[in-house]
UniProtKB/TrEMBL annotation:
Residues 1-28 form the signal peptide. It comes from Ailuropoda melanoleuca (Giant panda). Gene3D superfamilies: PAS domain, von Willebrand factor, type A domain. This is Calcium voltage-gated channel auxiliary subunit alpha2delta 3. Belongs to the calcium channel subunit alpha-2/delta family. It holds the Pfam family VGCC_alpha2. Coiled coil: none annotated. It is found in: Membrane.
Length: 1036
């Protein structure tokens, strides 16, 4: 029988055994949580998959055959380094000639119009008087036709009359809007205003005294808005509201003017809604401030340095303020005064008219919202007088814009999508001696030049795979650039509000000091280099490269041209040589196509050629059947060379397709190639109806075909891959969820085994995603153990296996729904560790053309009255107020107005322009494999990453037993850059370097300033306004 001591020893022994067991169990748990994934096994899987998939890609693409064929011609080709400066000068000369042809066509129209008007005998019996203009302008029809015969690329020409009618060629049926109205007025189009007037500095004074309450203030706001519509990028402005005090509509811009670009004008419009009427109007204070601003700003040299004007919007003035005008403006009268009397009362009309007439301006009265547009336009005719008297027919070119108001523009949009264009315009003057001092503007002639026409003059094959041409205006705004994105919500043709004033610095944002931009704005010729980060594939991927920029001006226009060439293969071009007979034979192959948006032959010059495709035109040109065809001989020679060298691949693909033992599961569906000359060949290994991706390489698949802006995506990405290796990717969909079911693989073909060798072609295949993934899972089940028992497998529940590309996107995952997702969103802890270790690097990108969701107050006091229905109700309420003999300006009208326009204060979501910052990720090429452990809150997570040989892919095996949920996922979602009020103010004040238009016609000593407006019969106007409304009311 054991004693107590023995029992205690036994008890202590049992406790020790239990503690040891618990410790062993705990250590086991830790070991399991730190499961080490064998690097050698993952390397075996990666090697097996890499070998298998490269074999498939090389075999079905024919890459080795094509590389061999180009090598055979290596000794017979000449490699040249592209002279960027010579290239940009040549392109600028070509554009100059094209622009000159357009402006000469307009000059012929101007001469014909002025001659016809001079010979026309005015017939007073023709009513309305506008009919006289319609008659004499008929003579333009012959010139329209003659211009078109000389230059068939003039898609349409037009004459906009100062009287309001619009003559165009070719004629087209105008369709009314949903209200049955054709509301187009050529006189408020930017091309008309820009041609008719000179650049101007404008201060707008708005009376917000108590008498302006209600409808008057609404009309005043709309008048200001309409004036803003007439201001363009070469103009400067500010708006000051006044009562006993001055209230800058934007307080940040106290004492200065800002450029009248779209962004600034919209900013001021938003602030207009905050104005309210109270107190007494002290116009003398406002006039003093306006004159001082114009004088001070003029001395800075920043404004238009041309015309200056003060726009006064008020319901009356108790004085003529001649002492102020004598102090600041007489006798030169360099600042014109335009006065707008709001309301029906004429008590103060004489004072306001005197102010306008004494300062070379114009007076007008605005009683209703319907009067606003026509009355605002009057000031433009006054500003045009000096130009007319000088008889200076300045040629003006607008910034790039999308016009969907003209019927012909709508038709072009239906055919090609919304089209960016620039307009060349010239003013038309009266040459009658008896009206010379009046400076009568007859109208403006113009024609539109689609930006695509400019791109046709650019030989894309000379710019290389990543190269591009771009042009900007004298204000630094983009005329054409491959990164310009004027639309949003893809497929809906919605224009961004500020699409026409995107600055070069917003797309070439790496140039923080605006060196390139400023040199181009100043019309210099030179070179600039910098490292750039170019996004591709819907902005999700980034290519980091060094660009050399070459730039010069386009004479006779306000534009400057630039060319960007990427360093390395992008700076070299090679010339091959084959006979025409050889090339023609191989061009006849049915699998050959050419880039439709490249200009091999000019098929626009003669109407009989317009139906021809570029390939058809080349064949006719080479056979000598169309002597009138003008073609690029150098480009066609290289097309023939590429056709001959690549011809054998057609037979190779055909043999593969006919071999029933090959591709039995039809995993590979398409093989394709493209060359530096825009030549493409395509082969289908399955029937067209069986293709998984029906859109691939079709006209709508812009990213993957040659177009005017860029080479195909698969070509561009392959060119940056190590020669001989393939780049694999899945296409990104435009929807929120990306679920692609194909994989594209491509590789580049080079002449020489060095960086200076031009990339002459790229080939590739597209295969089913399911086929690709099956190959991956098969490879991941291999192991090197002799007994066939693998220490680890992707089938194990303890690990997750992924296949990701060099930008971190998942191609293969056990969870199929993760296909196409960014790896950092799925395995945030692992991606974070890879970034820390340097296996991947984060690149910060900026988007200055983004659209962000914003909450906006849906209540808008002014917008209610701008609606036709609400405007009608407002007019009826005004009539009733008049009938009961209350004052229009007092409480009753204000009460009726506020009752109608008051809306529930609620927020609505809108898309508005914004700046965003977002990341992209790129793998480090020098790191082939790595492993690591991540310390999490209660476990350690291990992983292995191994590069797939001859590819841009990586296999990642991750310990799944440790969730590591404390680490937040890494996303690629853009973050809006928010500016505080101080920074917003600085951005508003900041003015980038710009170049003023060369001509200015602010004044002329012979100008007749006596025609300065007047108030029509107020009683007559009142009766005309009341009559239709009473008829409408009492007919119901």
């Amino acid at each position: 029988m054991a004693g107590p001591g023995l029992q205690r020893r036994a008890s202590r022994g049992a406790s020790a055994l239990l503690a040891a067991a618990l410790l062993y169990a705990a250590l086991g748990a830790v070991v399991r949580s730190e499961q080490q994934i064998p690097l050698s096994v993952v390397k075996l899987w990666a090697s097996a998959f890499g070998g298998e998939i490269k074999s498939i890609a090389a075999k079905y693409s024919g890459s080795q055959l094509l590389q061999k064929k180009y090598k055979e011609y290596e000794k017979d080709v000449a490699i040249e380094e592209i002279d960027g400066l010579q290239l940009v000068k040549k392109l600028a000369k070509n554009m100059e000639e094209m622009f000159h042809k357009k402006s000469e066509a307009m000059r012929r129209l101007v001469e014909a119009a002025e001659e016809a008007h001079l010979k026309h005998e005015f017939d007073a019996d023709l009513q309305p008087a506008i009919v006289n203009g319609v008659y004499w302008s008929e003579s333009l029809n012959k010139v329209f036709v003659d211009n078109f015969d000389r230059d068939p690329s003039l898609i349409w020409q037009y004459f906009g009359s100062a009287k309001g009618f619009f003559r165009q060629y070719p004629g087209i049926k105008w369709e009314p809007d949903e209200n049955g109205v054709i509301a187009f007025d050529c006189r408020n189009r930017k091309w008309y205003i820009q041609a008719a007037t000179s650049p101007k500095d404008v201060v707008i004074l708005v009376d917000v005294s108590g008498s302006m309450k209600g409808l008057r203030l609404t009309i005043a706001k709309q008048t200001v808005s309409s004036i803003l519509d007439t201001l363009g990028d070469d103009d400067f402005f500010n708006i000051i509201a006044y009562n006993e005090e001055l209230h800058y509509v934007e307080p940040c811009l106290n004492g200065t003017l800002v450029q009248a670009d779209r962004t600034n004008k919209e900013h001021f419009r938003e602030h207009l809604d905050k104005l309210f009427a109270k107190g007494i109007g002290m116009l003398d204070i406002a006039l003093n401030e306006a004159f001082n601003i114009l004088s001070d700003f003029n001395h800075t040299g920043q404004g238009s340095i041309c015309s200056q004007a003060i726009m006064l919007i008020t319901d009356g003035a108790v004085d003529t303020y001649d002492t102020i005008f004598a102090k600041y403006n007489w006798p030169e009268r360099k600042v014109r005064i335009f006065t707008y009397l709001i309301g029906r009362e004429a008590a103060f009309a004489d004072n306001l008219k005197w102010m306008a007439c004494a300062n070379k301006g114009f007076f007008t009265q605005i009683s209703t919202l319907a009067d606003v547009q026509e009355n605002v336009m009057e000031y433009l005719h006054v500003l045009s007088r000096p130009k007319v008297i000088d008889q200076e027919h300045d040629v003006v070119w607008t910034e790039a814009y999308i016009d969907s108001t003209l019927p012909q523009a709508q038709k072009l949009a239906d055919d090609q999508g919304l089209v960016l264009m620039t307009t060349v315009a010239m003013p038309v003057f009266s040459k009658q001696n008896e009206t010379r001092s009046k400076g009568i503007l007859l109208g403006v002639v113009g024609t539109d030049v689609p930006v695509k026409e400019l791109l046709k003059t650019i030989p894309k094959y000379k710019l290389g795979i990543h190269g591009y041409a771009f042009a900007i205006t004298n204000n630094g705004y983009i005329l054409t650039h491959p990164e310009l994105r004027p639309l949003y919500e893809e497929g809906k043709k919605r224009r961004k509000p500020n699409y026409s004033s995107v600055d070069l610095s917003e797309v070439e944002w790496e140039d923080r000091d605006d060196v390139l931009r400023n040199a181009m704005v100043n019309r210099k010729t030179g070179k600039f280099s910098m490292e750039v980060k170019k996004t591709v594939d819907k902005g999700k991927r980034v290519l980091v490269m060094t660009n050399d920029y070459y730039y010069t001006d386009i004479k006779g226009t306000p534009f400057s041209l630039g060319v960007a060439l990427s360093r390395g293969h992008g700076k070299y071009f090679f010339r091959g040589n084959v006979t025409i007979e050889e090339g023609l034979h191989d061009l006849e192959h049915p699998d050959v196509s050419l880039a439709d948006e490249w200009s091999y032959c000019n098929t626009d010059l003669h109407p009989e050629h317009r139906h021809l495709s570029q390939l058809e035109a080349i064949k006719l040109y080479l056979k000598g059947k169309e002597p009138l065809l003008q073609c690029d001989k150098e480009l066609i020679q290289e097309v023939l060379f590429d056709a001959v060298v690549s011809a054998p691949i057609e037979a190779y693909w055909t043999s593969l397709a006919l071999n029933k033992s090959e591709n039995s599961d039809k995993g590979v569906e398409v093989a394709f190639l493209g060359t530096r000359t825009g030549l493409s060949r395509i082969n289908l290994f399955v029937g067209a109806e069986q293709l998984t991706n029906q859109d691939f390489l079709k006209a709508g698949d812009k990213e993957n075909i040659f177009n005017a802006d860029h080479f195909p995506l698969w070509y561009r990405r392959a060119a940056e891959q190590i020669p001989g290796s393939f780049v694999y990717s899945i296409p990104f969909s435009t929807g929120i969820v990306n679920k692609s079911n194909v994989v594209t693989a491509s590789t580049s073909i080079q002449l020489l085994d060095e960086r200076k060798s031009p990339v002459v072609a790229a080939v590739g295949i597209q295969m089913k995603l399911e086929f690709f993934q099956r190959k991956f899972w098969t490879a991941s089940r291999q192991c090197a153990s002799l007994d066939g028992k693998c220490s680890i497998s992707c089938d194990d529940e303890t690990v997750n296996c992924y296949l990701i590309d060099n930008n971190g996107f998942i191609l293969v995952s056990e969870d199929y729904t993760q296909t196409g997702d960014f790896f950092g969103e799925v395995e945030g802890a692992v991606m974070n560790k890879l970034l820390t270790m340097g296996s991947f690097k984060r690149i910060t990108l900026y988007d200055y053309q983004a659209m962000c969701r914003a909450n906006k107050d849906s209540s808008d006091g002014a917008s209610g009255l701008l609606d036709p229905y609400n405007a009608f109700l407002a007019a009826v309420k005004w009539i009733m107020t008049e009938l009961v003999l209350f004052l229009v300006e007092f409480n009753l009208c204000s009460w009726w107005h506020s009752d109608m326009t008051a809306k529930a204060q609620k927020l609505k979501q809108t898309l508005e322009p914004c700046d965003t910052e977002y990341p992209a990720f790129v793998s480090e090429r020098t790191i082939k494999e790595t492993s690591g452990n991540i310390a999490c809150e209660d476990c350690s997570k291990s992983f292995v990453i191994q590069q797939i040989p001859s590819s841009n892919l990586f296999m990642v095996v991750v310990d799944s037993s440790c969730l590591c949920e404390s680490v937040t996922p890494i996303t690629m979602a853009p973050i809006e850059i928010r500016y505080n009020e101080s920074l917003k103010c600085e951005r508003l004040k900041a003015q980038k370097i710009r170049r003023r238009p060369e001509s200015c016609h602010g004044f002329h000593p012979e100008e007749n300033a006596r025609e300065c407006g007047g108030a029509p019969s107020l009683q007559a106007r009142r009766l005309l306004t009341l009559l239709p409304l009473f008829l409408m009311l009492f007919s119901r």
